[in-house]
Amino acid sequence: MIQVGIIGATGYAGGELVRLLYGHKEAEIKWYGSRSYVDQKYASVYQNMFQIVEDVCRDDNLKQLAKEVDVIFTATPQGFLAGVLDEEILSNTKVIDLSADFRIKDVATYEKWYGIEHKSPQFIPEAVYGLCERNREAIKQARLVANPGCYPTCSITSIFPLAAEGLIDMNTLIIDAKSGTSGAGRSAKVANLYCEVNENIKAYGVASHRHTPEIEEQLSYAAGCPVVLNFTPHLVPMNRGILVTAYASLKEVKKPDGSLGLPDAAMIRAAYDKYYQDEKFVRVLPEGVCPETKWVEGSNFVDVNVKVDPRTKRVIMMGAMDNLVKGAAGQAVQNMNLMFGLEESEGLDLVPMFP
Amino acid sequence: MIQVGIIGATGYAGGELVRLLYGHKEAEIKWYGSRSYVDQKYASVYQNMFQIVEDVCRDDNLKQLAKEVDVIFTATPQGFLAGVLDEEILSNTKVIDLSADFRIKDVATYEKWYGIEHKSPQFIPEAVYGLCERNREAIKQARLVANPGCYPTCSITSIFPLAAEGLIDMNTLIIDAKSGTSGAGRSAKVANLYCEVNENIKAYGVASHRHTPEIEEQLSYAAGCPVVLNFTPHLVPMNRGILVTAYASLKEVKKPDGSLGLPDAAMIRAAYDKYYQDEKFVRVLPEGVCPETKWVEGSNFVDVNVKVDPRTKRVIMMGAMDNLVKGAAGQAVQNMNLMFGLEESEGLDLVPMFP
Amino acid sequence: MIQVGIIGATGYAGGELVRLLYGHKEAEIKWYGSRSYVDQKYASVYQNMFQIVEDVCRDDNLKQLAKEVDVIFTATPQGFLAGVLDEEILSNTKVIDLSADFRIKDVATYEKWYGIEHKSPQFIPEAVYGLCERNREAIKQARLVANPGCYPTCSITSIFPLAAEGLIDMNTLIIDAKSGTSGAGRSAKVANLYCEVNENIKAYGVASHRHTPEIEEQLSYAAGCPVVLNFTPHLVPMNRGILVTAYASLKEVKKPDGSLGLPDAAMIRAAYDKYYQDEKFVRVLPEGVCPETKWVEGSNFVDVNVKVDPRTKRVIMMGAMDNLVKGAAGQAVQNMNLMFGLEESEGLDLVPMFP
Amino acid sequence: MIQVGIIGATGYAGGELVRLLYGHKEAEIKWYGSRSYVDQKYASVYQNMFQIVEDVCRDDNLKQLAKEVDVIFTATPQGFLAGVLDEEILSNTKVIDLSADFRIKDVATYEKWYGIEHKSPQFIPEAVYGLCERNREAIKQARLVANPGCYPTCSITSIFPLAAEGLIDMNTLIIDAKSGTSGAGRSAKVANLYCEVNENIKAYGVASHRHTPEIEEQLSYAAGCPVVLNFTPHLVPMNRGILVTAYASLKEVKKPDGSLGLPDAAMIRAAYDKYYQDEKFVRVLPEGVCPETKWVEGSNFVDVNVKVDPRTKRVIMMGAMDNLVKGAAGQAVQNMNLMFGLEESEGLDLVPMFP
Question: What does UniProt list as catalytic (chains A, B, C, D) (predicted)?
Fold first, then answer.
């Protein structure tokens, strides 16, 4: 039985970790870390866990915790983990970090977009970017996994096949993303009040959202060249779900018959099948069916689909995902499974809930 | 492995049956009955089941189906099952009926409230009312289970202990209930359009809702006398969830010290503990914590609590439940488990999803 | 032109006052009081007022303000107005208080339910309870109007005719109310976050909500005897709207033909017509049509209806209203119109917005 | 007093026309046309109009109606008006068509995208595209105004200044739009049920939505060259509102100092000010403030803003609008005001409702 500690167990991502790990056959939570609710029963904070979780919340103490558990999930604000991580911790336990601290390889880029100094740059090189479908083998060997951001998970999954196969002009890439409100976290802010979000939609972080460099870095690896793109997130009046609509111009390629030309729908579709036909958690939808966030709610799926527009010679890439599952806690558990040699889908065999 | 047939698999309750049975270790669905979607892939109707369910929808044929499966769930309009049920079917298979056809023992009462003739009154006597916490032993022996209505499940569960213990005046009982919109079903009606329900709340079926006699009958058994009550349902802008707020005057009783008087909070609470302390799916919340539908969403729990008002000498009984789970498909699976001698909670170990 | 000052202009009720007064032909706002946003442009707090309101928010200073304006609206926390009011202020200006400070005639009752000491009990006697349809003449003469609470406005309006006509047993009165979330105000609390309220319904303040004594007092006047009742509010996932569902047993009365008996539907309806047929803002709906909050959204209407249940000998009284308009800012403007001798509906000729 | 007839008065756009015209000082509705509700009281279909509108719904009869009223609004399905319009009608009355029949100048384009034959192509040349801010003078002279589509109104308004000033490369234009559900109309379809839309977001009509050629045509006029673009609408769980997020690459231009280069933020902003500083209904928001649909709800405003991204050399154009007001009924009334020589904002002085 894997012993698990969670730092930040009372945020929405932390709460989702608790929900998912309850159904996990090989793991049990030993530590519910929460600065805000120390010594309170966890189930008094998340009443859904009443009579399911009996533990109380405890202060975070990563050093001590590392000696007691096999893996620590940090669902904490940016900078927290980088501020306390050391070799001793990593020699005692594995760490899956749901914050952004170790997602970006270039320290300067991290510091510019996040506006804070990185306190543990020495661990960046060994940190593995935990997008399971991409880095499966490296994750299995990792001590420190940087669990991807919610927007990046959905964006990269939706775009990767065409980037990797060279079918789109990466200079034309635009990502328009929409997220439910749980992505904004559980802290009390006027902007996140019910009456402010309900019956409303807006863009935010336009041309400045922190997930931009993370997406760019990963797609650069896919495309084999630097990628600079537009990423615009929007806040949608719903609890869960991220929808990505991405646009790019098709690139002239050598077609199967040897001629040069724009890839057709079949080639585009083949690219998605190539990367995802054996992936349990990425579902390439039937032609003409657009991803909807409701169809994946509560599950670890990313639903993707693609549409070629011959009028504009562009392709529209779409992806839908539950931001708290595949976009946070679910992928974190998937990473844990890989790191401990378990069945990758253990605890994640979740059927989306509808309606 | 129990072979299962579902008639009405593409309604919301049918869809929830499919979701729950997918996670059930001892049952598998052999028949997805749906008149509206015959020969279409089930996953094209409920896209959440894409790559999970590969079957197509089939026309309903209860007689044939009864020979092929061990149990049939009928999630069908009122009158359907009563119109086709016969001894041959019941000798071939077990039937769990999610409609109201066999919930009410008095045929005249059924016909008055539902406005249709009952075509199979001969099976009413043997039908067992499938409120598992109340009729567990009878359900185990049943061929035909009448799965309770959503409002009745939540209402009866919330009120039963005080009715059974004689602590409230049954003539004063008022039930004010609130339901999410999935209870209205998946048929296309203007009144159920998004824009009509959203940002809106209303009462409906005032003093005339069909679940009234069902609640009255069951509470009559509990109280040992006829019960006539007010039941007012309301439509709430949310997908899932039923909240019951019930009111009754306290009845003078002999107190533990022998004196006559109104029951105090401790006696009231003791009544709930007596009936529910060993029940997995009924959670008596800590004092002062009001049930909320969100805390049980997606699960088979009913959360209940109670508050004594010394000013008015009344007690307020509250219950929250997911109408599609404990109020429909979950309880149906719980009934199946009982009928087949399985662990009662098999397939129902569902953690509520929050947020 | 009436000069208006608002203290608490950046809460939701304050914001609604600004919206309504913009459309008022005889009033103009001179002072946007807001402690939280001093010196910020009002339209930067409420972006809907961009290019409509150019003023900045100012600190509250009731004494100074009283000299500059003809009327002050205080949309402030409980205790604020009572803490600063004095004779000088009231001799300089009229005050319409949207808080509870002067709604309850009995100081002890106020202090018990609100848990604070009343600092200006000397002004309670002269304060007029501003339920316009009830106290029209007194309001016209008032210097100080206590604008009713949102729940009380809807509850009293729905119940008054039967209480005043002696058609119901006041000892049996139960009020089950449901409110949108704007009633909880604009302060940043976890409980009011989008993800906590959305897809959720709960009761709160059970047997202890502060609006209870206010309703009881007003209905006591109507019935001519002390009234003790149950009032249970619920939080509904919508921005605006209050729905009241109230229950009471019918009282035996002398019928038109001289016999004794329970009032029938016609007598009940006649009571509503008697009090409301000339009231512009109270709409008695056609028989069988239940009030819905969406049908009054944005308007000053209260829609009411009533249903007699011969089975239980009870009557169900229903009312729907926009909590920010008739439940707060709209009624406050209606009071202002009365106090200044204007057309009562000036600025309030608002058509409900649907959908 | 202008006599008004509405064909299609019981759809959502028709209902909004009724709401707005009630507040119009110079117009009164004489005819509430509705095939579905003939002879029923209008207020029984839209209960918000109870005691406000006393008329009944009448069958549509354009020929007869044209003789009785000064202007007809047709809020009807595509093809209806083109199927019945003739010279006699237009000689008797003015027509403001809220359908797409006369929006597109090229018949073949209309027939291809809408999939129906155009029955009155002879009236297309004289029809004026009723985007008031663009075609004010022509509208004043028109007998037949094609009221713009909701998406086109918001898209064109957001993009026009940069297209007209030649500051963006029109070949790179991508419009990602999000709409509330009232845009889908009031017909009973499963896809528009509350439970299907709530907690969900999806794209639809990808690379095939009918508003595409309308946007392209109007922006072609602005840019002075043919425009082919991507337009992707999304369905958002809210009643009202459209948000447009549009992307284009900046075009090298001669700068104020004579040099060649990309336009900077000041030049971009100046373009918006040039076209909108005197427009009452288009609000260019302060720098850094993103448009939100809630801030314009119920009003005739379009809020726009723009952000230059120096990293990608693109500009992000944003617009928010109420789809039923400026996107349908509000603009239709604005057109009527222009056609009859009234104050352009008569009846449209609507303050957005928040929350």
Answer: 150
pLDDT in tens, D320-344: 999 999 999 999 999 999 999 999 9
Element (H, E) at A309: strand A302-309
Task: Give D2-126's CATH code, choosing from 3.90.226.10, 3.30.470.20, 3.40.50.2300, 3.40.50.720.
Answer: 3.40.50.720
Cβ pair B268, B162 in contact under 8 A? yes
Count of pairs with CB atoms under 8 A, one residue in C, one in D:
73
Q: How far apart are CA B278 and CA B143, in angstroms?
A: 26
- Find all residues with CB under 8 Å of C351, minimum gap 6, and list them: C298, C299, D19, D22, D23, D48, D49, D52
Three-class DSSP category at B4: strand
CB within 8 A of A235, min separation 6: which ones? A179, A181, A184, A197, A200, A201, A202, A204
> Does A210 lie at the interface with D, CB-CB under 8 angstroms?
no
Measured in angstroms, the CA of D324 and the nearest CA of chain A are apart by: 14
Tokens 């337009």 -> residue: D231
Q: How many residues does chain D have?
A: 355
Are the C-beta atoms of residues D353 and D294 closer than 8 Å to each other?
A: no
- Of the partner residues B22, B52, B354, the one whose CB lies closest to the CB of residue A15: B354
Contact A215, A231 (CB under 8 A): yes
Q: Which amino acid is at D128?
A: V
For D255: left if phi > 0, alpha if psi spans -120 to 50, otherwise beta; the answer is beta
State what percent of residues in chain C have pLDDT above 70: 100
Is B319 at the interface with chain C, CB within 8 A? no
Instruction: State yes or no: ipTM above 0.90.
Output: yes
Return the structure tokens found at D283.
């609000």
pLDDT tens-digit readout, D173-225 = 999 999 999 999 999 999 999 999 999 999 999 999 999 999 999 999 999 99
Measuring CA to CA, which residue among A197, A169, A175 is closest to residue A184? A197
Three-state DSSP at B161 gives helix
* Measured CA distances, B17 to A176, A298, A305, B23, B147 (Å): 36, 17, 28, 10, 13
Q: In chain D, where are the structural domains located?
A: 2-126, 151-323
- The answer on pLDDT for A257 being more than 90 is no
Nearest to D142 by CA among D150, D130, D134: D130
Question: Using an 8 Å Cβ cutoff, are B237 and B199 in contact?
Answer: yes
Residue labelled with tokens 């004494």 = C63
Positive or negative, the CA dihedral D64, D65, D71, D72 is negative
Element (H, E) at B218: helix B211-223
Q: Residue D224 has what DSSP assignment?
A: T
B297 neighbors C199 (Cβ within 8 angstroms): yes
Is residue C180 within 8 A of residue C323, CB to CB? The reply is yes
C-alpha D330/C-alpha D52 separation (Å) is 19
Q: Does the beta carbon of A288 lie under 8 angstroms from any beta carbon of chain B? A: no
Question: Which amino acid would we find at residue B12?
Answer: Y
Q: Do B245 and C232 touch (CB under 8 A)?
A: yes
CATH top-level class for B151-323?
Answer: alpha beta
CA distance B96 to D91: 67
Q: Is the peptide bond before D355 cis (omega within 30 degrees of 0)?
A: yes
Residue whose structure tokens are 């420190």? A144
Q: Considering the entire predicted model, what is its pTM?
A: 0.98
Kindly list the residues from chain D whose CB atom is less than 8 angstroms away from the CB atom of residue C292. 47
Using the predicted structure, report yes or no on whether residue A195 has a pLDDT greater than 90: yes
**Are A123 and A85 a contacting pair, CB within 8 Å?**
yes
Helix (H) / strand (E) element for C254: namely strand C253-254
CATH of the domain spanning C151-322, picked from 3.10.20.880, 3.40.720.10, 3.30.360.10, 3.40.50.300 = 3.30.360.10
List CB contacts of C307: < 8 A, sequence separation 6 or more: B206, B207, C315, C316, C318
